[in-house]
Design a protein that fits this description.
Shape of chain B: globular
Helix content of chain B: 25-40%
Radius of gyration of chain B: 23 Å
Radius of gyration of chain A: 27 Å
Mean pLDDT of chain A: 95
Strand content of chain B: 15-25%
Distance between the termini of chain B: 62 Å
Shape of chain A: globular
Number of strands of chain A: 22
Oligomer: heterodimer
Low-confidence stretches of chain B: none
Largest interface: A-B, 82 and 68 residues
Number of helices of chain A: 22
Strand order of the largest sheet of chain A: 11-10-12-13-15-14-20
Strand content of chain A: 15-25%
Helix content of chain A: 25-40%
């Protein structure tokens, strides 16, 4: 035995050095895979790696145990380089049951590591997962490094002294597996131990049992290292901008950005929403910010939510509503009223796969047309899109800034992927963000409700309660100055044009569109928006590293489009628009600029993979 | 100009008239209701700047244009939701919702029940004319079975709902009913509604002179009114009739009201039921009185105040104690953070 000698060596000398790694945790929806992933994310951030995560879970809260449709997964990509996506395929798969192995195996890289709980690989459970032949025995896992352990039994053994019943004991198995993976990547267990003690402060037995499981998993991995000749992986720290970080999901960043806009403007936020997947986490986050000038209102339906938000804006606060596509459809008429009465409003759409109910937990970018066009009448408003979880914070502040400055509804497009995914976030300092200017009209002298600021074309914001400015507004066409009901033909023409001009005019107040990467003119411009930012930018960078010049343009402003975008696009021979829809931005660009933009679509409910983008870009260059 | 200049003297009913020409049909019951509201506003000492009228769509929904306060003419059926947002944003505003039977009970039924159950501090005036006016005469959710209309040429077949009973069922803490033409009584009902903190629901039987003229005549015609109307008053016996000799008592052994005549079968005034406006069961019985044999109950049927929604919300949230950059920065730094060194 030479174990002692080996232990004297610095641990990492035997570990395989990697630049980045992708781990996927998969189990039943009740197995705690999201918690496990969350803890691994934290430990990885603390280890100094850059990272991106993607939770992928079923719509059913607790689908029948052991079935393929009940599999809940969490993926994390982390490394010593800048991480831009949660990763195409994974290096390590943790499968807590046969169904998880079956569902996730296709995503594992050849030669990848499988850590699998063998307990349920009997005939009955295999049948439930729809598996004919036992993959642990039939050779189908030969291309992989398989670490097959009875994790359930090992967990029960580890927690035996903590007095839990069998069911409770088995619920600790995710932490056993986490302990194993912590060893594999040399992560520190201490923050998770601390988290467990805090989380289960009132159930110390449960906390200690989970900690025992975590430690047991870690210890077994350490012990098995020599027998298996598998030493785990080592990753250097990433070069990251110095400062204080935390992880943040898109939903959290959106909520905090909206509340921050309240602090920056001095106006309280009234957030009115109706629960819907995947938008609800924004409501949940804001509901905890009662002391920070946020009022939340869970309305009776989607329509009431947007109407209450408009009512709040009318009364002089920042009215915000939030939903996903089907709910946004219901809000359409009220959005028209906010456009017609020219009141500020922010609507956050956490997009999901459609049409109709579609796939609530799967991501898509298919509400762009709905946002830009989806109302009766000529009803322009501003549409902006978030590109990553952390970007939601800035986008939320931007949305409020535009809504107030231009007295208009602003739709913020995010999606299920961004909302649930997490990434490290350099925590901003509110003192360093420029305040949002708000001015309410109080002077009755010469007041007419629809007279406009010549620079922004915005009308005055008047709070009810202001003496001498009493007036009536509504959704009927109104006189361009007095706001009185008007059916005058020339006035309607004028008002329609004014409403359009006001929104188009926003573009001249924005920074010009930049080329993210690649040359300013050339062969191929890839134009993206929203959550495709990560995979597009990585694919463009990979190609660039191989000497293939592709330019990446990523839009935050969907409507109005940036004022220089037409000129930018004209500088490229080909324009390719990857979107997680059937081709929406591409049609907008074609109609606005008469540019021969081509589309690249994916509507599987899963984000683009970097590899598929790379090959598509290369194919366009060679065509 | 859509703007009024501020006044210092106490406002009269006339001061609550806007400069807009009223465009309801001549003879419409809405004129009378508008007058009664303007009188009530003056009587309660309302200010124009602090008062907001919110409406949906329909004939009644034009109401805000004719009042010199703030006004918001919104979309069909949703006025209660807008009003809720207004009250959440600024609980100090005095908010009135004006709606009709189509607006509040058909397309907006959902918002009506929720604004009532939440007990948002607003006055909700339901102009019930049992017909769709602005869309030219289709039957409504309060139209009686057999109503012939452009959409029901053979007569409607679905049964009407009772607005006041629906309001009680939704948990309204103030339910009243009035008649458009009763210019002495109606402002008093509005004043009670205004005084009540929480959602105040007032159903007004309103005559549509064009599409449903005389639909309430069996209750309101001069010859029959006294025998067909029961004006309830808290603490007073339930008496009605031309000779003030009819009244209600509880039928022995049944949860049912019966009409009795004072002086017949040994009945005296002391036997009559006394109106208790805090009694929800009694209010439901009164609200449901319908049909040729009983009068319609008018006045404040139910009033039993409870804390308003916006007050409760702001007790839990909506504070601004930490609405500053320092506290917000601290909040963002709670939980697990890590320092990346340069």
């Amino acid at each position: 035995m030479n174990i002692i000698e080996r232990q004297d060596l610095p641990q990492d000398t035997l570990r395989e050095q990697v630049e980045s790694a992708v781990v996927r945790f998969a189990g039943d929806s009740g197995d705690g895979m999201q918690v496990t992933g969350g803890q691994f994310t934290l430990a990885t951030a603390l280890a100094g790696n850059d990272l991106a995560t993607f939770p992928d879970y079923p719509a059913e809260i607790r689908a029948p145990a052991g079935t393929t449709f009940g599999v809940s997964s969490f993926q994390i990509n982390f490394g010593s380089r800048v991480i831009k996506t949660s990763g195409d395929s994974f290096d390590v798969l943790v499968a807590m049951n046969p169904a998880a192995l079956k569902v996730e195996l296709p995503g594992l890289k050849p030669g990848g590591v499988i850590v699998v709980d063998t307990r349920d690989f009997d005939e009955r459970h295999l049948r439930r997962a729809g598996i004919d032949s036992n993959p642990l025995e039939d050779g189908s896992l030969d291309p992989y490094r398989v670490i097959a352990l009875d994790i359930s039994q090992l967990t029960m053994d580890a927690v035996a002294e903590h007095g839990l019943n069998k069911k409770e004991a088995l619920r600790c198995k995710n932490f056993w597996a986490l302990g194993y993976i912590y060893w594999m990547f040399a992560r520190d267990r201490a923050p998770t131990v601390e988290w467990l003690r805090e989380k289960f402060a009132k159930l110390p037995d449960v906390a200690e049992a989970n900690i025992a499981a975590l430690n047991a998993g870690h210890a077994l991995a350490e012990t098995a290292e020599q027998q298996d000749n598998f030493h785990g992986f080592a990753l250097a720290k990433a070069e990251i901008e110095p400062g204080l970080y935390r992880t943040v999901t898109g939903a959290e960043a959106m909520a905090w950005g909206l509340a921050a806009a309240g602090v920056l403007s001095g106006l309280e936020t009234v957030f009115c929403s109706y629960p819907i997947t995947p938008a609800s986490p924004v409501l949940h986050s804001l509901s905890r910010l009662g002391d920070y000038g946020v009022t939340t209102f869970q309305a009776e339906d989607e329509i009431a939510a947007v109407c209450a938000a408009i009512g709040a804006s009318y009364a002089g606060k920042i009215g915000v509503t939030s939903s996903s596509g089907p709910g946004v459809a219901l809000k359409g008429e009220a959005l028209g009223l906010a456009i017609s009465t020219e009141l500020p409003l922010v609507l956050v759409n956490s997009q999901r796969a459609g049409p109709s109910t579609g796939m609530p937990t799967k991501t898509e970018q298919s509400d762009l047309f709905q946002a830009v066009y989806g109302r009766n009448g000529d009803a322009p408003l501003c549409v902006i899109a978030a590109r990553s979880p952390a970007d939601c914070f800035d986008v939320a502040i931007d949305a409020v800034r535009i809504a107030i400055k231009f007295m208009t509804p602003v739709i913020v497009l995010t999606d299920g992927y961004i909302g649930n995914a997490a990434e490290p976030w350099l925590i901003p300092d509110l003192e360093s963000i420029s305040p949002l200017k708000v001015s309410f009209r109080t002077d009755p002298e010469g007041f007419e409700p629809f007279v406009r600021n010549p620079e922004t074309l915005a009308r005055d914001w008047v709070k009810p309660g202001t003496p001498g400015l009493e007036h009536r507004i509504g959704g009927i066409e109104k006189d361009a100055r007095t706001g009185h009901i008007s059916y005058d033909p020339a006035n309607h023409q004028k008002m329609t044009e004014l409403r359009a001009a006001k929104i188009q005019g926003i573009a001249s107040h924005l920074m010009p569109q930049k080329v993210e990467a690649g040359p300013e003119r050339g062969e191929l411009a890839v134009v993206g928006w929203g959550s495709t930012y990560g995979p597009i930018s990585r694919a463009v960078e990979n190609l660039s590293n191989r000497g293939v010049a592709v330019s990446h343009i990523h839009l935050r402003h969907i409507w109005p489009l940036p004022s220089n975008l037409g000129d930018l696009l004209a500088g490229f021979k080909r324009v390719l628009v990857p979107e997680m829809n059937d081709g929406q931005l591409v049609k907008l660009l074609r109609s606005e600029y008469l540019v021969d933009a081509e589309s690249l679509n994916k509507v599987t409910g899963q984000p683009f993979k970097i590899a598929e983008l790379e090959s598509a870009f290369e194919a366009r260059l060679e065509a | 100009m859509n703007v009024e200049s501020p006044l210092t003297a106490p406002l009269t009913a006339k001061d609550f008239a806007s400069d807009q020409e009223v465009r309801w049909c001549p003879g419409c019951g809405d004129y009378a209701i508008l007058r009664a509201v303007q009188k009530a506003l003056a009587d309660v000492g309302a200010t124009r700047e602090n008062t907001v009228f919110v409406s949906g769509i329909g004939c009644a929904a034009r109401f805000p244009y004719y009042v010199s306060t703030y006004g918001f003419h919104t979309i069909h059926g949703r006025a209660p939701a807008f009003a809720t947002g207004i009250k959440l944003a600024n609980p100090e505003l005095d908010v009135w919702i004006v709606s009709g039977d189509g607006d509040a009970l058909s397309i907006g039924g959902n918002h009506l029940i929720h604004v009532l159950r939440r007990n948002v501090d607003v006055q909700l005036l339901l102009f019930n004319n049992e017909i769709y006016g602005l869309t030219k005469g289709q039957y409504s959710p309060t139209s009686r079975v057999g109503t012939r209309s452009p959409s029901t040429p053979m007569g409607s077949v679905d049964r009407p709902l009772s607005a006041a009973r629906l309001a009680l069922g939704a948990g309204a803490r103030f339910v009243a009913r009035g008649v458009d033409t009763q210019q002495k009584v109606l402002p008093e009902i509005f004043k009670r509604a205004h005084e009540h903190k929480g959602a105040s629901f007032v159903e007004i039987l309103q005559n549509c002179i064009v599409y449903n003229d005389g639909v309430f005549a069996e209750y309101t015609d001069k010859g029959v009114a006294e025998d067909r109307q029961l004006a309830v008053e808290h603490g007073q016996p339930l008496i009605f009739g031309k000779d003030r000799d009819k009244g209600f008592r509880l039928k022995a052994g049944k949860l049912e009201l019966e009409v009795v005549t004072i002086g017949q079968d040994g009945v005296s005034e002391a036997d009559l039921l006394v109106h208790d406006e805090t009694n929800q069961e009694l209010a439901a019985l009164l609200a449901g009185m319908d049909g040729p044999d009983v009068p319609v109950a008018l006045g404040v049927l139910y009033c039993d105040p409870a804390p308003s929604y916006e007050a409760a919300v702001h007790e839990h949230a909506g504070g601004t104690s930490k609405m500053n950059a320092a506290d917000f920065n601290a909040m963002l730094r709670q939980g697990h953070t890590w320092q990346v060194e340069g």
